[in-house]
Design goal:
- The structure holds 2 protein chains of 2 kinds.
- In chain A, 32% of the residues lie in helices and 23% in strands.
- Chain A is an alpha/beta fold.
- In chain A, helix 9 packs across helix 11.
- Chain B is α/β, with parallel strands linked by helices.
- In chain B, 52% of the residues lie in helices and 8% in strands.
- The longest helix of chain B has 38 residues.
- Chain B is globular and about 80 Å long.
- The mean pLDDT of chain B is 91.
- Classes of the chains: A alpha/beta, B alpha/beta.
């Protein structure tokens, strides 16, 4: 019984909410952020990932699946359009150059992993975090997983891009101890340009949820040249303070990790931006603080 | 770091870099032993100890507040070999080795070998790190360079053979003196803790009173012990007085040579030290300073007499009250005490002292109350700031300890000191009681050497036998199968075969220990050490002759759990469950070191690995460890004086044994290291630290009695912020709460280490944890360095 598609479960996760957590990465996203750092989470279906540096050109995959893999003049070519992502080539690849990203799982199988680290959640105030991709676009699986975790007495956090209908968030509220809500952009024009989303509703969702008393941390990707603007910092500051249950904002400075991963997936729509240094980040925090914003960390 | 400490560090770094050192130990001992032939062994030993103490050259180093040094006792060699002489010698050694058919020369040691002699005579090489490069006549880096060059010149020899032959050949020649000592044999106290605290409390004068009482009414059997004790006791007092004179001399020289103000204040300082030495040569230690100084005097004397791996035991217990009292009556400030301890820490890292000297902090008192005190805290500050490899500090965590203790431990680890390691009182106290110790003794345990658990002050040397490499036993099972001795129709039968091999290996070690036990009566004596092992003075017997209050812990070592569990798992999965490969085919592939069977090797190594919280393979690991612990525990008979303990810790044997062992069913190639101590196979614990610890927590720790080491390597990037630190704290707390026996951390990233291999000169300060202790990375053999780099970096 398949209930959801994920592309990874990360244990000892210490940057996705409080304490030691297990983060489940949902596959599939409804946004197309140009700076995406988890591009392997964008497509909803499993995909074949290929790492050229690891390939020994042994040709086993080409033998098995000549339509997709070919090795010519010491060059491995992957024709993705013919690939059904059956994963058989991964079985013969001994160097780990090929890998299927995304697996179909059940609530039980995910919970089996999650519950193993209860002793560390108890000691650290940690728990389960759903991330992605975007968890809310697999609404049933997302909700079931959260409910099961709550039933087992485990703290839950939902990391979301904030784009789901407000009613969905309200339905999830009883099962979510902490929302990690993205707040990406303030300028609506930029939103369409950089995220492919014409109707970016995060800000109103955050406000509405905050009003209902949901505990929220704002997660703000800051991309130099895109949203390191005073207007945006002021908006972050405003939101971070809008309601008592909003714990503050957490800045997620841009990094290039996504680019390499995008390449392995056959190239996704990821763009390169300048990488900020720690001084930039401190300066951003100061500016937000000057606007009266609350910094979570 | 204060100016004094910075200067002292410079001085001691200079001493360590000064060149190859010799020792006066052999010539002094020999001088006496030649004159006492025909006398009883005990008396000869005592007289030789007296002679050494009376004639050892003394050194007083600039800037130090605690005096006592081996620097003059172990002077730098005058004529070191030139580079070309070394090369000629190395080629000569290897050519004759090849001429003799490549057989390792017989290194058997007569009598009862010490811990290191024990292992250095075996098939593999020993000097995997500079501090075990004993009695060498070239520097460790020269040896490493020679080995590297000879590897390119002698391709027909296995690299480990080259290393082994060269390390054995480049030795000091102490001639007849060494031969006389070896045949005696000279068997000094090692791998134990002496009761320094008792001497601090009653003074050498107090011991003398007891010896005199013994002499007055001793029966003839005991009289020789008391006579020996009296001689060495007097010699110890003279030694300290000689040091007092040497310090006074240094004070005078300082006044004459440089009458400037700064120097004269040093003269004042030295005069005060000399005064204190004159007092503590006789009297109990009245203050914290006197306590530290007397401790160090006793430690240095034992080191000169051939002692090694001498532990400071529960340092915060025997000195804690003195510190708190001095602080209370304002006779010392916290800053002064801190500086004093920094001095001591540096002394411990002087040349020829870098054997694993351990120190235990925290835990509970003998009567079970919270033992952590202000001195515990101060010591942890020193550990955190000094970042020195020795002493090897173990902190006992008990439910009674307040949270600050673990906080201080985490802070030190996170600052990159690599220390301390953590021991869980829940496990060790209960298990020592189960072994038959009284609760106060169990409450008092400490880590000796690396991670070995002992009761302080009351036991003679830790007893060693041949370590058991779990993975090597699998090879034996396959051998017996091929020879038709075993039917292995199911995995259960395979496991039974493996466990039978394990029980036989334990039995072999038992017999080895029995052999050693038989040779101890009337042969082993250490009159000096026996002044400070509880029971000896009362009983009128040497600690080796049943004078000690408690008997010996004979350790049966085993390690390589990860490699063994992964190998057994691969056999289960591919031979029995999936039937992809037969045992015969597997055995052939292992003999061929997977030549032409790369695909099979990949398949084998694709089986589940211990350390990832996977129940099937973890259950195999549990069963391996349980079988071992049970087999060792069963060697004990209730009420017996000596006890057999299981020590799940591999020192660096995982490399040493790995080099000489064929391929294993987990896909490990011939010659590659086994997994280290109780850890997973190198680089195979890919599911993060919680999964690794969960795997370890599935093991049954209830019969664990000798020691345990679990290394966890974390990237320093994880713990640079408060978030990471508190995560680490929670990780450790959960592990301890649920019965993890021991854990130690390593905080270096692989990049740093790789760079250190290329540019050792830039990374002289890099400390890593190996086995159960810390060492400078650049002082390690290339293969050990490689192995450390390969261990997974979590996060």
């Amino acid at each position: 019984m398949v209930e959801g598609t994920i592309f990874g479960i990360q244990r000892f996760s210490i940057h996705d909410g409080p304490g030691i957590r297990t983060t489940v990465f949902f596959k599939g996203c409804n946004m197309r952020c140009a700076w995406c750092h988890n591009p392997e989470g964008i497509a909803a279906l499993p995909q074949l990932a290929y790492i050229d540096e690891r390939c020994s050109r042994c040709g086993q995959c080409a033998q098995l699946c000549p339509g997709v893999h070919s090795i010519v003049h010491g060059q491995h070519t992957l024709r993705r359009e013919g690939c059904m992502v059956c994963g058989r080539c991964v079985g013969v690849c001994h160097t780990g150059a090929l890998r299927v990203i995304g697996e179909q799982v059940t609530v039980d199988s995910v919970m089996d992993v999650v519950l193993r680290d209860r002793r560390y959640y108890d000691q650290s105030g940690g728990g389960l975090t759903l991330s992605g991709g975007e968890p809310t676009i697999q609404p049933e699986f997302c909700k079931k997983l959260l409910m099961r975790a709550k039933l087992k007495g485990i703290h839950t956090a939902l990391e979301t891009n904030g784009s789901a209908p407000i009613q969905q968030y309200i339905d999830l509220m009883p099962h979510v101890d902490l929302f990690l809500m993205d707040y990406k952009l303030t300028d609506p024009g930029a939103s369409e340009l950089y995220t492919g989303s014409t109707n970016y509703v995060a800000s109103s969702n955050i406000d509405a949820l905050g009003k209902l008393g949901a505990r929220i941390i704002l997660r703000c990707p800051i991309i130099p040249g895109v949203n390191d603007t005073d207007e945006h910092f002021a908006a972050i500051a405003r939101l971070s303070n809008a309601h008592g249950s909003i714990l503050g904002c957490e800045l997620m400075p841009y990094h290039q990790l996504g680019e390499g991963k995008a390449q392995q997936m056959g190239g996704a729509e990821v763009v390169s931006f300048p990488v900020p240094d720690p001084n930039n980040v401190n300066e951003w925090k100061q500016r937000i603080a000057q606007h009266g914003g609350r910094i979570y960390r | 770091m204060s100016e004094r400490i910075a200067l002292l560090r410079e001085t001691i770094d200079g001493l360590n870099a000064a060149g190859v050192r010799q020792t006066y130990f052999y010539s002094l001992a020999y001088h006496s032993l030649r004159q006492t032939r025909g006398e009883s062994i005990q008396i000869r030993r005592a007289k030789a100890q007296v002679y050494i103490l009376d004639h050892a050259p003394l050194a007083v180093l600039p800037h130090e507040l605690i005096v006592g040094s081996l620097a003059a006792f172990c002077p730098v060699m005058k004529d070191e070999m030139s580079a070309s002489q070394m090369l000629d010698q190395a080629r000569y050694v290897l050519d004759s080795y090849i001429e003799q058919g490549g057989r390792a020369r017989d290194q058997s040691v007569p009598g009862i070998p010490t811990f290191e002699q024990e292992f250095s005579g075996k098939q593999s090489r020993w000097a995997l790190m500079s501090r075990v490069h004993h009695d060498a006549n070239i520097s460790y880096s020269d040896l490493q360079n020679l080995i590297a060059q000879m590897k390119t010149e002698y391709e027909s020899l296995a690299p480990y053979e080259i290393g082994r032959e060269l390390e054995r050949a480049f030795k000091q020649d102490y001639g007849d003196a060494k031969r006389e000592l070896d045949t005696l044999p000279w068997f000094a106290a090692n791998h134990l803790s002496l009761d320094y605290g008792r001497v601090l409390d009653v003074g050498l004068r107090g011991l003398e009173a007891e010896v005199k009482r013994g002499l007055a009414d001793a029966d003839p059997e005991k009289i020789e012990y008391y006579q020996s004790a009296y001689m060495v006791l007097q010699a110890a007092q003279r030694f300290i007085l000689r040091y007092a004179n040497a310090v006074s001399g240094a004070a005078n020289r300082s006044r004459i040579n440089d009458p400037k103000e700064a120097q004269s204040s040093r003269a004042e300082e030295l005069s005060r030290i000399a005064f204190a030495l004159r007092r503590i040569a006789i009297e109990p230690a009245n203050s914290f300073y006197e306590g530290v100084q007397l401790t160090w005097m006793l430690h240095i004397m034992m080191s000169m007499l051939g002692g090694s791996a001498l532990s400071f035991g529960r340092f915060d217990q025997y000195l804690g009250a003195r510190y708190e009292q001095d602080i209370a009556n304002a006779s010392i400030t916290k800053e002064e005490a801190y500086e004093l301890l920094c001095c001591l820490w540096h002394k411990i890292n002087e040349p020829k002292l870098r054997t694993v000297q351990s120190m235990t902090l925290g835990g509970v008192t003998r009567d079970g109350n919270d033992a952590a005190n202000e001195l515990t805290r101060l010591c942890l500050d020193v550990v955190r700031d000094m970042k020195l490899p020795y002493p090897n500090v173990g902190v006992r965590i008990n439910r009674q300890n307040e949270p600050w203790l673990l906080d201080a431990v985490i802070e030190s680890i996170c600052r990159g000191a690599g220390q301390p390691m953590i021991m869980n009182d829940d496990i060790w106290i209960e298990n020592l009681v189960r072994l038959g110790h009284r609760l106060p003794d169990a409450n008092d345990y400490y880590n000796m050497g690396c991670v070995e658990i002992m009761v302080p002050n009351k036991m003679p040397n830790w007893g060693v036998t041949d370590p058991i490499a779990f993975p090597m036993l699998i090879g034996r099972v396959l051998d017996r199968f091929v020879q038709g001795e075993l039917a292995l129709g199911s995995f259960d039968q395979f496991m039974e075969g493996f466990k039978a091999e394990m029980r036989m290996a334990v039995q072999r070690d038992y017999l080895e220990a029995q052999g050693k036990i038989k040779r101890i009566p009337n042969a082993c004596y250490d009159p000096f050490a026996s002044l400070m092992i509880d029971g000896c003075l009362e009983m009128g017997r040497d600690m080796f002759q049943n004078g000690s209050e408690l008997g010996t812990h004979w350790s049966i070592y085993a390690y390589g759990l990860g490699t063994a569990a992964d190998s057994l798992m691969a056999v289960k999965k591919w031979v029995y469950d999936q039937k992809t490969v037969s045992l015969e085919q597997l055995n052939q592939a292992l003999s061929d070191d997977f030549q032409g069977r790369e695909q099979l090797r990949n398949m084998l190594s694709g089986a589940p690995h211990y350390g990832n919280d996977l129940d099937e393979v973890d259950a195999i690991a549990r069963s391996v460890m349980r079988c071992f612990n049970d087999a060792v525990f069963a060697l004990n008979t209730p009420g017996a004086r000596d006890k057999f303990v299981s020590t799940l810790f591999g020192y660096f044997f995982h490399i040493y044994h790995g080099e000489i062992t064929a391929a294993t069913p987990n896909g490990r190639r011939a010659g590659e290291p086994f997994s280290d101590s109780m850890g997973p196979s190198q680089g195979m614990d890919t599911s993060g630290p919680t999964a690794m610890l969960n795997s370890a927590l599935k093991l049954d720790q209830s019969m664990l009695t000798g020691g345990y080491a679990l290394n966890m390597k974390l990237s320093p990037t994880i713990t640079q912020d408060e978030q990471g630190k508190s995560a680490l704290r929670a990780l450790i707390s959960a592990y301890l709460m649920d019965g993890g026996p021991q854990i130690q951390f390593n905080f270096v990233d692989a990049e740093q280490l790789r760079d250190a291999r290329i540019h050792p000169e830039r990374h002289g300060d890099l400390i890593v944890r190996i086995g159960g202790y810390c060492e400078y990375f650049v002082n390690l053999d290339a293969s050990l360095q490689q192995e450390i780099i390969q261990r997974t970096v979590h996060g």
